[in-house]
Design goal:
430 residues, two-stranded antiparallel ribbon, two-stranded antiparallel sheet, 4 strands, mainly alpha
């Protein structure tokens, strides 16, 4: 049955390899079940309920990817967009988390439409490469800023806005240790480095009397407080356009980059250059974001950590289904999730941020009309504490510099479209 469903022999794999690959990928991305609830609980959502929602959304997305697209990809609520959800949409803009979930739903529907039409190709080709790269790098800096703040490594300062925190405080020392453990283990190519770092610091916190031990395994927490609580009508607001666009495009380009990268590693590219079942993979990914909004999650996306499972031999959807099963099992570890402090996850956030900044090497540094808007986007996302505002300023700067430099023909229809939308938002809806 499994052979018929996943074509294991055709893909030069077997059940043992697929199960091992699924476990490997799960270990590398399991940190999200601790980080995401903690992040989104800051928006007023119940931590235990978000924990269950995170596990369920990831499980359903992985199983859908495995059964429909037959790809060895793990999916879960995306890093960066959960921070945008919490700190920008809810925190800065003042919307309720229910309305924010409504925006996630609308963005997911738009992503689905793009996945089944030629809009996806038009958008991917219309957005300048430098700006695509800049989105990921800017989100990385945003995540890093949050990690440094939650770990007490940087603190508010009336004179300088920011300054170095008290490194000798126990919480800050443990945050630094979390990062160092994750970095060293990652350098040594040890699977699950981030998970190990988070759990090690949490255990130290318990031993030092900083955390109350609450057990490890229990029945799942209540889930009703976030299930089907999205407010779609409230999200249909002109001021939410930039938010929806940010959810959509960050997810789109992140997903496209991840899928293309994993496809090449998993031998999913035919000799002709065609990627096997790419359309199905994109449809599975986009539908996962819609489903995630019902479960109380920020946009669900494909994880680049899936490459770890591919390196372990994963080639088919059986790997993805295995990942999904482990996420279901993880639901019963809610007491452990409730004990993980912010300083334990801070190291993971900082490390993810550094990895995301690696994309800057792919920027085109030879043309300032391409480079400067990208750098503006990267810098302004963390400095405005808003992914939406940073992206908006980047697109506006791109069109302005191209037009003023006599390179108006370089501006694609997609870039014009987005720049005008963001300009209207900045001018009339800020």
């Amino acid at each position: 049955m499994l052979e018929k469903l996943f074509h294991l022999k055709e893909n030069s794999t077997d059940i043992k390899k697929e199960l091992l690959a699924g476990f490997t990928t799960f270990i590398t991305m399991a940190y999200i079940i601790f980080v995401n609830p903690q992040m989104m609980s800051s928006a007023g959502m119940e931590l235990g309920a978000v924990f269950v929602g995170t596990c369920l959304a990831a499980a359903l997305a992985c199983i859908a990817m495995g059964l429909y697209a037959n790809w060895p990809i793990g999916l879960a609520p995306g890093m960066g967009l959960n921070a945008f959800f919490t700190f920008t949409v809810v925190g800065e803009m003042g919307y309720s988390w229910e309305i924010a979930l409504g925006a996630v739903f609308i963005a997911g529907i738009l992503f689905m439409i793009m996945s089944i039409t030629r809009m996806r190709q038009w958008m991917l080709e219309s957005i300048p490469m430098n700006l695509r790269i800049a989105m990921g790098c800017g989100v990385g800096l945003f995540i890093g800023f949050i990690g440094l703040k939650s770990g007490g490594i940087i603190v508010a300062n009336e004179a300088t806005l920011l300054s170095l925190g008290d490194i000798m405080q126990s919480e800050t020392l443990l945050a630094v240790m979390s990062f160092l453990v994750i970095a060293v283990l990652s350098i040594r190519n040890i699977p699950g480095a981030m998970l190990i770092g988070i759990l090690m610091v949490t255990i130290l916190g318990i031993l030092m009397g900083m955390i109350e031990y609450r057990g490890i395994v229990s029945s799942p927490p209540e889930f009703a407080s976030v299930f089907l609580k999205l407010d779609i009508v409230g999200a249909i607001d002109l001021a939410m356009i930039s938010v929806i666009m940010s959810f959509l495009f960050v997810n789109l380009f992140d997903t496209a980059g991840t899928l293309l990268g994993v496809a090449s590693r998993a031998n999913l590219i035919e000799d002709s250059g065609k990627i096997i079942n790419l359309d199905k993979a994109l449809k599975a990914d986009s539908s996962a974001s819609v489903a995630g909004s019902f479960l109380g999650c920020s946009p669900v996306t494909s994880y680049v950590e899936s490459s770890a499972g591919v390196e372990a031999g994963g080639r088919t959807g059986l790997t993805a289904i295995t990942i999904g099963i482990f996420f279901i099992v993880a639901i019963f570890f809610s007491p452990l999730a409730s004990m993980v402090p912010a300083y334990a996850t801070a190291g993971a956030l900082i490390y993810v941020a550094i990895l995301m900044l690696g994309g800057m090497e792919r920027l085109d540094w030879s043309d300032n009309t391409e480079l400067l808007p990208a750098l503006i986007m990267i810098i302004m996302i963390p400095l405005t504490f808003s992914i939406a505002n940073g992206i908006a300023l980047g697109f506006i700067a791109y069109v302005a510099l191209k037009v003023s430099s006599g390179k108006i023909n370089d501006v694609s229809s997609g870039a014009w479209f987005l720049a005008l939308i963001f300009l209207a938002k900045v001018a009339f809806l800020s």
